[in-house]
Specification:
By secondary structure, the protein is mainly α. The protein has one domain (about 10-255). The protein has eight helices and two strands, in the order H-E-E-H-H-H-H-H-H-H. It has a two-stranded antiparallel ribbon. A hairpin with a 6-residue loop joins strand 1 (about 20) and strand 2 (about 30). Helix 2 (about 30-55) packs across helix 4 (about 90-105) and helix 6 runs antiparallel to helix 7. The radius of gyration is 22 Å and the shape is globular.
């Protein structure tokens, strides 16, 4: 927390919103984003893999029961939205929901926890953002991955000719092909933009609120921080769910041939 002998409020905010960057320009890497997202993915999916290897036909344990409930929820959403045949969609949706959720959940850690731990080892003024989804580089990387899959399946399912005809003929007919094509380009560009910016914007705003609360006196922090953290659990879950659902919808549209 900012004090009279510590950083000013603006310096405190900038410090907590600055990534640990290595390199310059386009070839710069956000080490904190890469590290946290990779570790979270390895831990969470490693645990799920471990549980899957020990699945029993009898009464499931708590971990197996939870994962089965989670899988059934994701699978039901895929079946209700995606009407094509593709074994990748359900695992992809499961991966997106779980991974985005755990990355979002890092927002519930105390703001100054990392700084305090590093201070114990004599490391001060070290930039390290623990919430990967507050970094637009990560959210855009995920949305562009979905976009590439969307384009790939458009060509694979419809063929180059079918995809071109759809882009130029819908929705006003082939006579207005230039207008249709313009609308299609705008629509397709808007999809990864909306995916990335929605997740980034909501998580960045939530992180900013936590930082502003941390600037308040200690006896006020818990009064405001606890209700906001409880509400933020809903935001964390909802943003992961929306990213997953939109991914399913976009890929479903890519598989439609009519």
């Amino acid at each position: 927390m900012a004090t009279e002998t510590g950083p000013t409020s603006s310096e405190y905010i900038v410090h907590h919103l600055t990534n640990n960057v290595v390199g310059e320009g386009f070839w710069s890497f956000h080490i904190d984003t890469l590290l946290v997202s990779t570790v979270l993915g390895a831990v969470v999916f490693g645990l799920m893999y471990s549980v899957a290897r020990k699945v029993t036909p009898g009464v499931p344990g708590p971990a197996q029961n939870f994962i089965e409930m989670l899988f059934e929820m994701v699978d039901s959403q895929v079946k209700s939205i995606f009407h094509g045949k593709n074994d990748l969609i359900a695992p992809l949706a499961m991966t997106i929901f779980v991974w985005v959720f755990v990355m979002n959940a890092m927002d519930l850690l105390p703001i100054d926890l990392v700084s305090w731990v590093l201070g114990l080892f004599g490391v001060h003024h070290f930039y390290f953002k623990v919430v990967p989804t507050t970094d637009p580089n990560l959210t855009f990387a995920m949305s562009l991955s979905v976009f590439c899959l969307m384009i790939y399946y458009n060509f694979k399912i419809k063929g180059a000719g079918g995809f071109a005809h759809e882009a130029m003929a819908a929705p006003f007919g082939i006579a207005l092909a230039p207008v249709n094509l313009l609308f299609r380009v705008i629509e397709d560009i808007a999809k990864p933009l909306s995916l990335a910016l929605r997740l980034f914007g909501n998580m960045y705003a939530g992180e900013m609120v936590f930082i502003l609360i941390a600037l308040l006196p200690f006896y006020v922090q818990w009064t405001l921080g606890a209700p906001w953290a409880i509400f933020h659990i809903l935001v964390i879950t909802l943003q992961a769910y929306i990213f997953m659902m939109l991914t399913i919808v976009y890929l479903s549209m890519a598989h439609e041939t009519h």
